[in-house]
Design goal:
This is HNH endonuclease. The protein has 88 residues and is of the alpha+beta class. It contains three helices and four strands. The strands form two sheets. Strands 1-2 form a two-stranded antiparallel sheet. Strands 3-4 form a two-stranded antiparallel ribbon. Bound molecules: zinc ion (2 copies). The site of one zinc ion has 8 residues, from helix 1.
Length: 88
């Protein structure tokens, strides 16, 4: 058993099943968000865009609820994302 890289629960492989499911959802939403808004919400950059988590994202994830685009803070470039807070 190795601890999950995301939540620390012991499991097989590097991530537990619920975190693997979450990663899949996040990747899909991230692609969609960047297609809808192909620029940084803060500085307008079109480079290194990421879909940024908010408190609501983590709450829904902890409750095991499906993630929706409106549960995220929005699309930010990696520089603004870093400025917004520690890497999560
Ligand atoms: Zn996990
Ligand atoms: Zn930016």
């Amino acid at each position: 058993m190795t601890p999950c890289l995301t939540c620390g629960e012991p499991g097989r492989g590097s991530r537990c099943d619920s975190c693997r499911g979450y990663d899949r959802q996040h990747r899909k939403l991230s692609r969609k968000a960047r297609r809808l808004q192909p620029f940084c919400q803060s500085c307008g950059s079109t480079e290194n865009l990421q879909l940024d988590h908010g408190e609501e994202t983590w709450r829904r994830r902890a409750d095991g609820l499906p993630l929706r685009l409106q549960d995220y803070r929005g699309v930010y470039c990696s520089a603004c994302n870093r400025a917004n807070g520690p890497a999560r």
